[in-house]
């Protein structure tokens, strides 16, 4: 069976466009485009047949199907030449059973999807493998693409630089100066990207990259480009697959530019269309209160929407005041009986620290999602027996400065209740024994309090 995919307007304007054409918005109304699939053709294989095929491909050695993204090639970009696929076998990230943290919260079935356990340390790899592969196909088709560019607060730039380096395609990165962590800054530098550090925020970088990419020889890689959505949608599919094709009750996800929740919903809706699942989970979107336009719009029932000026937050990757995927995200949330919550800097730092004490190593964005979860559990909206999956979007090692600041008690607006600084002592056995006795007694008291 020959499967097909194409760009079409999210508002339903007529017209189909090749995914290998340099186009980002509808020529008729200016709205974003989305990748559509020939669902009738996909239905030629039964739901059981798809489950069997996808399970057989997990971590297989047949190129490119061992990738968590390209193992679902027919649902992503079916007609791309396998020789042009740029993959680092992304996906297949583990589900961490957060048993201890769940027990503290009163939840019996809490899981964390560790998307940061990937090549560049974030879920952005899932989308970038598709976008860079499509660009490679464009170049093979004769299109004069000189480079690929993005605005970023860190993770997108790392993924773009790595995949372009693997493909031998120049990459250009626009970063807001002094607003990304050192670990995030070094990644595109190391992978040879042209890095432009601008005196503005993410939204300012986004405005400039959109101007620069009006020249169609520089290809735009931000999430307004729906090719990235196709790769990122596999995270929801993968979650269900990892639960033996059972749907969790809730998925909690931190959001900024809103491409990730759009993608999450898209993958799950396709599974329902093809009969692999019969119900949808509820989705909880989490935002920092310092960059909360989606939350504010949700409070009005999405009747009104206004961009905000995003303020500095520990969750720097979602420090976005004017998300480009707002319209698509609203449609997804409404289909999933979803909700949006905001959290303070103190709440997200506290959530990170609590999670880390149970064996995780959370990034601040995961802390935003966990803090929102804590609120919904406390209010009784999420029940004790429900299965909950929190999507961890990046690896905590990218945010070492924030973690050091927490344990040193140096984070503004944060009360470090679980600070654990090193104990400095002379090289004396008696002093060490006394310090250990005090520290262990304190830990025993803390454990009794939790129990």
Description of the molecule:
This protein has 451 residues and is α/β, with parallel strands linked by helices. Among the domains are: 95-121 and 229-407, Rossmann fold; 425-451. Helix content is 40%, strand content 14%. It has helices at 39-42, 47-57, 73-76, 99-105, 124-140, 155-167, 182-190, 202-212, 226-232, 234-242, 259-273, 293-299, 326-335, 345-356, 364-378, 400-407, 429-450, and strands spanning 5-9, 33-37, 95-97, 109-114, 147-151, 171-176, 194-198, 218-220, 250-254, 282-288, 339-343, 387-392. α9 crosses α11. It is globular and about 75 Å long. It starts with a strand and ends with a helix.
Key features of this structure:
alpha/beta, 14% strand, 17 helices, 6-stranded mixed sheet, Rossmann fold, 4-stranded parallel sheet, 451 residues, globular, 12 strands
CATH class identity of the domain at 95-121 and 229-407? Alpha Beta
Overall helicity: 40-55%
Query: Which structural class matches the secondary elements?
Result: alpha/beta
- The stretches of 5 or more residues where confidence is low (pLDDT under 50) are none
**Total helical elements:** 17
What are the secondary-structure elements, in order, as H or E? EEHHHEHEHEHEHEHEHHEHEHHEHHEHH
- Give the overall silhouette: globular
| Major beta sheet, strand line-up | 3-4-12-9-10-11
Number of strands: 12
Instruction: Tell me the major beta sheet.
Output: 6 strands, mixed
At CATH's second level, what is the architecture of the domain at 95-121 and 229-407? 3-Layer(aba) Sandwich
Instruction: State Rg.
Output: 22 Å
């Amino acid at each position: 069976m020959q499967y097909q995919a194409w760009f079409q307007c999210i508002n339903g304007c007529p017209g189909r466009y090749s995914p290998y054409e340099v186009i980002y918005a509808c020529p008729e109304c200016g709205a974003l485009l989305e990748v559509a699939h020939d669902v009738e053709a996909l239905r030629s294989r039964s739901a059981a047949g798809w489950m069997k095929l996808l399970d057989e491909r997990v971590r297989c050695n047949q190129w490119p199907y061992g990738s968590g993204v390209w193992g679902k090639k027919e649902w992503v970009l079916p007609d791309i030449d396998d020789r042009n696929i740029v993959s680092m076998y992304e996906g297949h990230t583990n589900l961490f059973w957060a048993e201890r943290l769940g027990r503290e919260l009163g939840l019996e079935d809490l899981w964390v999807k560790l998307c940061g356990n990937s090549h560049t340390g974030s879920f952005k790899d899932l989308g970038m493998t598709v976008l860079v592969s499509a660009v490679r196909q464009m170049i093979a088709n004769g299109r004069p693409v000189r480079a690929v560019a993005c605005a970023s607060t860190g993770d997108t730039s790392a993924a773009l630089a790595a995949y372009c380096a693997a493909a031998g395609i120049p990459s250009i990165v626009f970063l807001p100066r002094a607003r990304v962590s050192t670990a995030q800054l070094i990644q595109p530098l190391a992978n040879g990207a042209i890095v432009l550090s601008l005196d503005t925020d993410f939204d300012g970088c986004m405005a400039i990259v959109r101007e620069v990419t009006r020249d169609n020889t520089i290809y735009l890689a931000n999430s307004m480009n729906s090719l990235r959505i196709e790769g990122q949608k596999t995270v929801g599919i993968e979650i269900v697959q990892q639960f033996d094709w059972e749907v969790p009750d809730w998925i909690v996800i931190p959001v900024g530019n809103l491409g990730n929740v759009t993608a999450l919903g898209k993958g799950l809706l396709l599974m329902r269309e093809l009969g692999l699942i019969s119900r949808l989970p509820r989705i909880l979107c989490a935002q920092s209160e310092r960059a909360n336009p989606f939350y504010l719009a949700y409070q009005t029932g999405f009747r009104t929407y206004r961009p905000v000026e995003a303020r500095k937050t520990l969750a720097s990757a979602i420090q976005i005041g004017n998300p480009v995927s707002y319209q698509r995200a609203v449609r997804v949330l409404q289909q999933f009986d979803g909700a949006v919550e905001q959290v303070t800097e103190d709440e997200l730092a506290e959530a990170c620290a609590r999670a880390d004490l149970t064996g995780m190593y959370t990034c601040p964005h995961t802390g935003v999602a966990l803090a929102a979860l804590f609120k919904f559990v406390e209010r009784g909206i999420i029940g004790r027996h429900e299965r909950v999956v929190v999507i961890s979007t990046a690896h905590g090692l990218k945010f070492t400065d924030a973690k050091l600041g927490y344990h040193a008690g140096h984070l503004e607006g944060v009360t470090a209740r679980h600070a654990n600084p090193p104990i400095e002592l002379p090289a004396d056995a008696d002093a060490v024994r006394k310090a250990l006795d005090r520290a262990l007694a304190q830990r025993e008291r803390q454990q009794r309090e939790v129990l």
